[in-house]
Structure formats: structure tokens, C-alpha cells
Design brief:
54% helix, 5 helices
Amino acid sequence: MKFFIRAFFKTLRVVMGPFMLIGEVINRPDGLIRPLTEQDKVDLQCKNLTLYQYKTCPFCIKVRQEMHRLSLKITRLDAQPKGKNRDDLKQGGGQAKVPCLRITDEAGQHQWLYDSGEIILYLDRRFAKI
């Protein structure tokens, strides 16, 4: 039974995935326009952020839309296939759940922020007024 459930969702993801990605592009919000010096400061701060994601996850799409709205150049890593990115997410954050934003402070310590709503709130508070 477990095999059939997994096969169903994998098929659904393969069929619906391209439509979700097209919808993301079509519904993409306009990016925030900042003066060049301010955008350079934001880009520098974004180097300490990494988004672990699945390409067709609706919650990840929601976070990417907010990143685009705020004109944030955050590194994105696909954690769906088994491999280094997924292993890093499990080891660092404790679970292979996406979306997950890894925040690195100046001392090199990592904070792992799960939940799309929390990530969007964090990005909005940190970058909307810059």
C-alpha cells in the first residue's frame, strides 16, 4: 500500500510540477527597487542566507515569491534528491523539511528556520525597510 501511495504522489508531482513552476513565473511580483548602494548592502547580507527547497513545493514557491518581491539574492539549494544538500539539512536543522532558511551569523553559527510563514516574516522584518 505504501508503494502505491508514494507512486501516486510522485506521479502527481511529475504532472503538476511544470504547471506550478509556470504559475510561479506568471504570478511573480515586481521586485523592490532600492538605490544601488542599498541593494549592494542587502546582497552582502544575503550571502549569509541559504534556502533549502524543493522546486515544486507550494510553500517553497511562496517563499521564493517573497524573495523576488524583496529583491533578495539568496542561495537556493534543492534538498529533494538524496545527497549532500539533503544530508546537510538533516544534520544541521534536524529534519529534512522544506522550506528551511539557514541563517549564518558573523561567528559562523547557524540558525535553521522552518515554516514558510516564519521565513517570510523574518525576511520582511529584516529587508523590507532597507
